[in-house]
Amino acid sequence: MRNDTPRVCIVGAGAAGLSLAYALSSHRINTRICDAGKAGQGALAASAGMIAPGAEIHEAGARPHPLAVAFARLALHSASLWPAWAQRLRYETGIDPEYRASGSLIPLPGDAEGANAAASLQALGVKAHRLTKAEAVRHLPGLDSEGSLFLPGDAQLSAPRLGEALITALQASAHAELHEQVRVTGIEPGAQGWRVRLADGEMIETDCVVLAAGWAAETLHPAAAGVFPVKGQALMLQAGADAGTDSWPLVRAGDVYLASKPGGRVLVGASAEPGRSDTVTDTVTADTLLERAARHVPAIASMQRLSHWAGVRPALPGMMPRAGEAAPGLFVALGAYRHGVMLAPALAEGLARAIAGEGESEHLVPFAPPHG
Question: Measuring CA to CA, which residue among 367, 370, 369, 368 is closest to residue 65?
Fold first, then answer.
C-alpha cells in the first residue's frame, strides 16, 4: 500500500530518473517521478543505446581529466550490470530491451597507433585487441581501415525499448507513481524534508528529492549549477534485412559512430552542438555525418535514409557526471552527457543504496557534488 506522501520525489523521467525509480522499487521505497514532458522521451529516446565503456574511455583520453580513472572504473562497473538488468526487465515486463554484446571497432590509421591505444586501455582494465585490416573485415565486411582496435566488452541496446520497459515496470510497481506533463518550478527545504513546487501551484512534501532533470536542471537548484545542453543529431538508415548488418559491432571513429539495429537498420550519429537546446534538424549536419561514416564503411553511402532526429544531452564542464547527495535528503544524477544509458544501472543502484541508508557506492564517491 502506498503512503499518501511518497518518500522520494524524482524530478526527471529520463534514463537516470526511470532507472533510479526502478532500483528504489526493489527497496520498497515509495517514489513519485515528475517529468515536464513524456517519460522516456528527450535524450533517452534520441540515444543510440550504446553501452561502450571501452570506446568512451578511449575517446576520453583525448581530453585529460582528474576523474578519468574514476570514470573508467564507473563505466566498466555499470556496463557489467547491464546483462542482468536487461534480463530482469525482459522477464518482468515482457519487453526486450534488445541488449547485445556487439563489441566496438575503433578504426585507426596504422598498427603503431593500435599498439599504443591497446596498451593504454588494457592498463585501465579494458579488454582491447589490435586487428589487422583483414581481421577487422571479418568483424565488419567492407570496413576501410588500415588497422583497428576491437573492444569485446562493449555492447548496445534499444533506447526506446529500454524506456518502454522501465515505464512498464514502474506502472506495475506498488511503490512508484509516474506523473507526466508535470513541470517542477522549484525545490526547497521543508519542515521535515523537502518541498517540490509544481507549476500548477501544488507543493509535494517528501523526505528526499532526486534532481535528474537533464539539461534544464540548473534552473531548479544550485546543486545543478553548470549543467548545459549539447544538441546531437542522428540518422537511421536502411541497409536491408539480408545485408548482414545486424551482427555488426559498434563502430566508434571519434567524429562519428555507427550502431547496427535489428532489421538491417544502421544508426549514424551524432553531432555535438554545445549550448543548443532545440531539436531542429538540418541537411548540412546529416550530410556531414554520412560523409564521415562512409569514409570508414563505404556501403553507408548507398543506404536509404529512414529518419533524422535531434536530441539534447545534459553535460557538465569536463564531460563528467555529478551523482550523489548534495545536501541532506537532496540527491543529484546530472550531466551524464552521452553516457546516460551506459551509466544508468550504476547510478541507480548506487543512489538507491544511499537513499535507503545502506551506504555510499565506492564508484560514485568521486562524482559526488560539488565537483568540476
Answer: 367
Phi, psi of 352 (to 5 degrees): -60, -40
- Specify the DSSP class assigned to residue 152: T
Nearest to 85 by CA among 53, 51, 38: 51
CATH code: domain of residue 339:
3.50.50.60
Residue where a domain terminates, one of 290, 315, 340: 315
Residues 296 and 349 in one domain: no
Same domain, 237 and 338: no
Match 564521415 to its residue by C-alpha cell: 292
pLDDT 10s digits, 218-268: 899 999 999 999 999 999 999 976 788 999 999 999 899 999 999 999 999
Helices (H) and strands (E) in the chain, counts: 9, 20
* pTM summary value: 0.94
C-alpha cell, 366: 568521486
Residue 285's domain comprises 101-153+228-315
